[in-house]
């Protein structure tokens, strides 16, 4: 079994990271909204290509307000500024969450494979009636309910 990850984080760094997350939760989270499931698909979206169009439209709306009779220009400007500000956070946060997820997935996979290997070794030890093997196998087998024991295990 390849060991592709050997993650170690000392307590001081862990506490600094948790403190940084707390700052995000206190300062940013109250300003954010959560869309209902499927709601985002129904909304027109502003991607990278549309950002320039939207920014230019805002500049024109401020310069020529006589054509902005159906919109609230100060709110329009707040929305554009919100997108600009959140874009500064979004890319680094997305990269970070992807790497956190990938690292957690790999570490979890390696841990699960090691657990299955240990379980298999314990089952072999149980067949040989080695000390504590019955306790280990009985406890670990709870992960796989409904599987019948083979005659050699009984």
Q: What are the salient characteristics of this protein?
A:
mainly alpha, elongated, 5 helices, 154 residues
Number of helices: 5
Report the sheet-strand fraction.
under 5%
Number of DSSP strands? 0
Separation of the first and last Cα atoms: 30 Å
Q: Which geometry do the CA atoms define?
A: elongated
Contiguous uncertain segments of 5+ residues: none
Structural class: mainly alpha
* Element string (H = helix, E = strand): HHHHH
Q: How much helicity do the residues have?
A: 55-70%
What Rg, in angstroms, do the CA atoms define? Answer: 28 Å
The description of the largest β-sheet is: none
Structural overview:
- By secondary structure, the protein is an all-alpha fold.
- The protein has five helices and no strands.
- Helix 4 (73-127) packs antiparallel against helix 5 (133-140).
- The longest helix is centred in the middle third of the chain and has 55 residues, at 73-127.
- The protein is elongated, with a radius of gyration of 28 Å.
